[in-house]
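Explain this one:

_____
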Amino acid sequence: MSPYNTRGAGNRGKRHRAVLIGVESYEHEIDLPAVSESLRLMAEALTHVTSGVLDGADLVVLPDPAEREGRPGAARPVDPFQAHAALRAARDEVDGLLVVYFAGHGIVRSDGSDLHLLFSSSRVTQDPLHPFVDALSWRNDVMAELRKAKADWVVAILDCCFAGNALHEFTPEVRQNFAVLMAAEPGVEIPPGAEGIGTDFTVALHGLLTGRTAADEPVSFTRIVPEIREAMAPFKAVDGHRWVPEERRHGDDVLLALTPASRRVNCVLPPPPHLPPPVPPEGPGEPGEKGEPGEPKPEAVEPGVPETAYVETDAPRTAPVRAEQGGAVDRVRQRLRALRRKRAIALTLALAVGAGAVLWAAPDWPPGGGRGGCTPPMELRVLVDPDVLPTVQKAADAYTNRDAEGCRTVGIGVYAGKSTDAVDAFRSAALWQSPLPTCPVSGDCLRPQRDLGAQPDIWIPAAGSTLARVREGQSGSARETVRLAGLGPLAFTPMVLAVPDLGPSAVGARTRAPLGSLIAGLRTGRPAGEEPLEVLRPDPEGTDGALLSTAALYDSFSAGEPSAGEPSAIEAGMADRLRPMPGTARDLMCALSDGSRNTLENRAAVLVPEQTMALFNLPSKVSVQGTRPSCASDTLQHRTARYPTDVPVLGLPFVRVTWTDADRDTKARERAVKDFYDWLVGDPDARALFVRDGFRDVEDGKPAPPGPTSPLRAPANDGAVSLDIPDSDSLMSVASIAGALSNYRKALGPGRVLYLLDNSTSMEDKRVWSGPGRAKELVTRSLRSLGTSDQYGVWTLAPEKKAKKKTDHPDVVRYGKNPLTGAQKAVGEAKAVNADADIVTGLTDALGTLRSGSSGADPRLIVLITDDEDSSELKRKDIEAVVKAAGQGARVRVVAVSLRPDGCAPGRLNQRLAEVTGGRCLDPSDSIATELTAEVAKTGTGDAE
């Protein structure tokens, strides 16, 4: 297969992007002045007039080159959260080639794990769990975003110390095209480069990308790897270590540079980028004193290559290199000797036009800035409720605010976060600007930048009550840090109980009543002999709509509606039917469509926004009245809305977010936010996007009847929805919502949890026993989800010699009620032993312990943490026996954590235990620490407390 080509016929209309990050100034580390030039060189290589695979408008450069105008030599700080936002935006917006480049300091933990990219404000602390503050983790921040990218191809280039350590956590999706090029091998530090010249690796890479001749082949990723290794062979890394760039590729191949013969189609050629003046090599007979550069000598030109001329330019000569930069002059001369074999150095480009030639002068940085290209636009960050993310993203993609030269002036980055996380973050907004330097040992502290992302300029929750909850619970420092101004609703959609098609005899379609009454009517009207309808709703911590529905559901019980049930019974019933509960309405509907996971497709009534149900009711054929989600099925398609009158209509308020001390471009940002809002509420194209997604338009601040292009008017929804907006409570009290959230978190407690910790020899041999992200740390972090009323224990699986019998498991933490700090300390002091783990016996005994002495709905969980070495040697009959035991009797979920990459493969013991118990299997392809903590939280009461 031919390498992916951005200029290919099928790719010209796609959105390509390069996110280029260069950090030259540091508050707590040594500055890297060479990075500024490296950043320019990389931009130049990607947008070169003859070899570039991107255009100037495709670049997002951090720091913004425009900030340096009028400030020659000024160091520009780079914010890690701005960089993270740029990655998030690129993840969602790019559907062609995505290139991510980083030049700056890199750092790893003492065991070589968890590469972090350092930014201007980054600092190293003594906190063993969170040692790097204001930095981006390659694994948790960069890789986590890029593996979700929609791009056809992702290429990451790391020019930093320990770049090769990214190999340890390179985890692309199965079908993803992804390549990473690293400056050096794992564990290797590299020199800082020379100011005005660039870092050695990037200078060499620039030469290889831009120095192709007409006779050369285009530069693909697989071609550049041996060439960059050859170019770096004469260099030495820190401590004299050999300098060998590393790479890893997942997928086919991709072009990173074209040849002069390649032509850009359907676009205007920009002027050639500026090239620095040449630095000649050292050699006999060259003018100049020893150690000083002489005048360049023209080199022999390869046959068939047009001759290039050396001319004087206004570009300043390269400044002398400081001696303390570790022999930088010698390295530069070595570099030029190595690269001379690859390219002819030129300062200008002669472009033939007809019978004559035109000599173009080089433009200033940035590429094309004001002369045929566009500088990166201002980026507005929009935080939204997860249920409205798809529609707001469509609007952001369609918004094209451009200046007189056709350049986009504003970019819109849209990202979603859990509703409860957003409320907590705005209530403690000061932590968004100044995160806590350390967290408790449990890791349990509020980190808005980690949990949500960068500080937003705009917030679009789904419900107006969410803004009221923030304002009522804000601390004094939060009110001084952030101002929230609601500008008005963008669209409306009521919450509905979407009921499966019950046939022509069905009654109650489009019924309006309190939620408890609606549910009671469904259960009493079910024909004899048929299974009862189940009632489900998404995770109430995830979206506003799910939380409001939960509050109404709980209030129905408090008001004496027995069919609603008490919170613990409601949540136990939902957990038994579907777990984990999806986080959004769309994800819940998609989960019901997946018949391999459940049998609820045609017997679950779901609490979702009306617009979600309307889209899933559509036929598969695309029409002007909206598009059915790809995961929908024909069985899931037939649903009718019941309208609970005690659940407020969702109004999608547009909230302007203004931050204290963020005044560098306050006026311009305020104008951009206002312009975006005016476009959203006033432009017919913007309104059509919301209408076609099933939302009701706004008319005098209230919901309007659906128009002809609305899916609510589609034949598939005829009789399934009410065209008139149903009456409902305009606003649910903050106290009611807070009470529902607290009751939800307590509903399934107290819990009973047993950790089975593999402490066999191999755990220590494979370095998965101690340290960040390793077995013991996974236990101590997830223990914070357990409260004082929960019963839990930690057993080790390798039996001690002094054990009286095989079933005597060493208690790291004795099963029962335990203080958190004491339990965490005991786990931290646990030792691996020279013995094999007895997985089967441990599981069998744990099942017996959790099932004894208790009845009722209290949740029970086994957490198995192992490297799978001993489970892989189990006999088939033993595996079948323990899987059968796990699936019978009182329900005990099993969350199996495998510390090997393929530990959750189909058919393995871990995966089978998860499937038969409704649990989960986690392996290194997941964010184990985060996901395990969340799984334990479903059983324990620590979060509620």
DSSP finds 28 helices and 31 strands in the chain. The radius of gyration is 31 Å. The longest helix spans residues 666-682. Residues 262-372 have pLDDT under 50 and may be disordered.
